[in-house]
Design brief:
By secondary structure, the protein is an all-alpha fold. The protein has a single domain, classed as MFS general substrate transporter like domains (Growth Hormone, Chain: A). It has a two-stranded antiparallel sheet. Helix 9 packs antiparallel against helix 14. The longest helix is centred in the middle third of the chain and has 32 residues. The radius of gyration is 21 Å and the shape is globular. It starts with a helix and ends with a helix.
């Protein structure tokens, strides 16, 4: 690896820690890949509660608008990461005390507790995710950033692939094994954050801002606003992401409902559809990591948005072409094979674009602020999108909901292409 990419000593040590973090997170995310289906099938949560579970994973980022200045003031990011990891992941151990019978889950208390535990878990990400970008952008060179990130992410997805398949198989044997597995993943999630915190921080000795915290928060919000006003390519990028995010959020929960209510799939089948695409993503991630480093992020975004539009399309037409076969207890629909293919393309591009795409619009020292802004806007669209998806489904059905999502994605693709061509035209005129 180091020979092929000619890494310096900082990059080598950072990559080892980054890779270890991603491998451990692969176990955690492999289990959480089935979390929403567990909530529906085993815990018997409602459709709107399912929408809230997904909403929580995104809406917490809205608070980055307020805490961005706090993050910039932190001198010891290692300590911050460790505290955030413990406080947000340790509560998952409560799930160990959840009951192992269906009748108990008629009590909505367990639904509320489950949602609350994962709201706390997701809240930890507002401290962890911006620091990932900050630490990696500060230790990786620009030319190797996307490549190294893609290699670590490919490894993460290999672990996810294996874990999700095994977890789905075990859940079909015992629908309540999650009461044992999720607490273990909570401990592993703490360990992963501790590993991440070992990545060197480049600015240990910087001086704290002398302004008051409220004044600084106001300045931080103004800074974010100024970025959107002055950095036109980035503004277009985020508007495109707003349309993409709306489409993704209204469709992802409804696809889970469709797998449960529309197709009546078992855990093994859902594990297949939620995870088989990672095989393709693993193969393609290194290629797309290099591609993102060589083309404008808006062109990359247009490609990414096209892949999700296609995978939603193939889910949508499954209702009209419900041909399938059984293989080792997995129900395989022919149209959903194409869903898996395009989901693989989407997974191998969006994981790069969402996590590090914003860093290509700024200087290294601004990466944390740009990613905080990017994640804050993610939280903004999460205020309404997931529950709107459930509402559209209950009012209009699966087809109309998926069609709305596809239309928004096509609009986002056109915006990205227009923005890139517009900037190139202006540069030529100058």
């Amino acid at each position: 690896m180091s020979f092929q990419l000619k890494l310096n000593s900082d990059e080598r040590s950072t990559f080892r820690l980054h890779l270890a973090y991603m491998l451990i997170e692969g176990f955690v995310l492999g289990v959480l890949a089935l979390n929403e289906f567990v909530f529906l099938k085993s815990i018997k949560g409602s459709n709107y509660q399912l929408g809230l579970l997904f909403q929580f994973s995104m809406i917490v980022f809205l608070f980055l608008i307020l805490i961005n200045e706090f993050l910039k003031r932190i001198k010891n990011r290692r300590k911050l990461l460790r505290i955030a990891g413990i406080l947000s992941r340790l509560p998952l151990l409560v799930i160990f005390f959840f009951p192992n019978n269906e009748q108990a889950y008629q009590n909505s208390t367990f639904h509320i507790v489950f949602l609350g535990l994962f709201l706390i878990y997701f809240a930890g990400n507002i401290f962890i995710n911006p620091n990932i970008n900050y630490l990696l952008k500060s230790n990786y060179t620009h030319s190797n950033f996307g490549k190294l990130y893609s290699y670590a992410t490919s490894s993460n997805k290999i672990v996810m692939l294996v874990v999700t398949f095994i977890y789905g198989f075990v859940l079909d044997i015992d629908n309540y094994i999650f009461t044992f597995i999720i607490p273990i993943m909570g401990i592993m999630a703490i360990v992963s954050v501790f590993v991440l915190s070992l990545i060197p921080q480049p600015e240990e000795g910087r001086l704290a801002n002398s302004a008051g915290i409220f004044s600084s928060v106001s300045s931080s919000i103004k800074e974010m606003r100024d970025i959107l006003v002055s950095n036109v390519p980035y503004r277009h990028f985020e508007i495109g992401f707003l349309m993409y995010g709306f489409s993704f959020m209204i469709s992802v929960t409804v696809i889970t409902i469709y797998f449960y209510d529309g197709l009546n799939l078992n855990y093994s089948s859902v594990a297949f559809y939620r995870n088989a695409y990672n095989i393709l993503a693993i193969v393609l991630l290194p290629y797309f990591g290099r591609l993102l480093g060589n083309i404008d992020p808006r062109r990359f975004a247009a490609l990414t948005f096209s892949t999700i539009a296609l995978y939603i399309f193939f889910v949508m037409i499954t209702d009209y072409l419900p041909y399938h076969f059984e293989l080792y207890g997995v129900t395989i629909y022919y149209t959903l094979i194409l869903y898996v293919v395009f989901h693989g393309l989407f997974a191998s591009t969006m994981v790069l674009l969402w996590n590090i795409g914003s860093a290509y619009f700024c200087r290294p020292e601004q990466a944390g602020t740009y990613q905080s802004l990017h994640l804050s806007l993610t939280g903004f669209r999460a205020i309404f999108s997931p529950l709107l998806g459930v509402l559209f489904y209950e009012l209009f059905g699966f087809t109309v909901t998926f069609a709305i999502a596809i239309f928004c994605l096509l609009s986002a693709m056109l915006l990205m292409r227009w923005s890139y061509k517009r900037e190139n035209k202006q540069e030529c005129l100058q």
